[in-house]
Amino acid sequence: MPETTAPHGADVVARHGADFVARHGADVVARHGADFVARHGADVVARPGADVVARPGADVVARHGADFVARHGVLARGYGHRPDPDDPGAVLAMPIVLHIPKQDPPARSALLEAAAMATVALCLDPRVGTGPEGEPGPWREPYLAWTDARIRKVSRRARGAQWRAAQEVDGITVEHRGAQARALVPGPVGHLDPRISRLQIGGTDLPHDTPDDPPAGVPVLWIDAALDMTVGKAAAQVGHAAMLFAGALDAEHAGAWAESGFVCAVRDADPVRWRHLTKRVADGTAVAVRDAGFTEVAPGSVTVIAVPG
């Protein structure tokens, strides 16, 4: 595969062999280095090479199904950058509904974890894939239209009857550590179901909490505390981080994460930890979310860094 090995130079091929580069994919080796891939494998690398998706092991297909591998492949290949339509109401976004009751609201970290889990669960749900005969699932068309465009999410808060009504709109609810969040099938922001469009966007916030250290083996989504994002903004950011992290895993590890219910931890990072995390991004051992800057933060801000557990 000369087109695969050519970009990496004689030193990489000489040290690791052309077959190594071919197995792990040109994009992985180019972005993270052959040494890193050799040490860690494709499961912790952002945007794994096409080989991860195209030739999964038989055990992966047997355990999770060929359609799971295909659904994971959508995340692994990354997202489109189709220009926004001229009509602002036709812009596509995934609504995330956060259950924030007046009495006994959830802990901020728990709610953000639920939002992240719900987001990635929808992205890997069978309904965004194809059926046994290749027929498209009921959510496939709107989901793929969204992933082919600029990825956007809009968080809204709900309580009481509003929350119950939101359960009737296509999506996935996650209950986690006393918190509930629902990710909905993406669609045009100007044509939302009225049960969702009436929900409040602004003013969605909760006080920062101090949860215990993340459990061992659980992926951690670290938020840059210096940005002081509202819980609604942070929910959209950790949702995107969960998508990127899932895409960074190979299909086998993504399947194992799915079996856990996509359990993750969300924590705030102080400046010292954030500097350490940004080094991990540079080393290729972590995945970063860079925000477009439409709301709250400057364009290009790194908002969340996801690391393996």
Automatic annotation (TrEMBL):
Return the Pfam families for the record. Answer: PTH2 (PF01981)
The protein's superkingdom reads Bacteria
Q: What is its EC number?
A: 3.1.1.29
Keywords associated with the record: Hydrolase
Q: Which reaction does it catalyse?
A: an N-acyl-L-alpha-aminoacyl-tRNA + H2O = an N-acyl-L-amino acid + a tRNA + H(+)
The protein's matches in InterPro entries, at most eight in alphabetical order, are given as: Pep_tRNA_hydro_II_dom_sf (IPR023476), PTH2 (IPR002833)
GO-annotated molecular function? peptidyl-tRNA hydrolase activity
Q: What is this protein called?
A: peptidyl-tRNA hydrolase
Which species is this UniProt entry from? Rhodococcus ruber
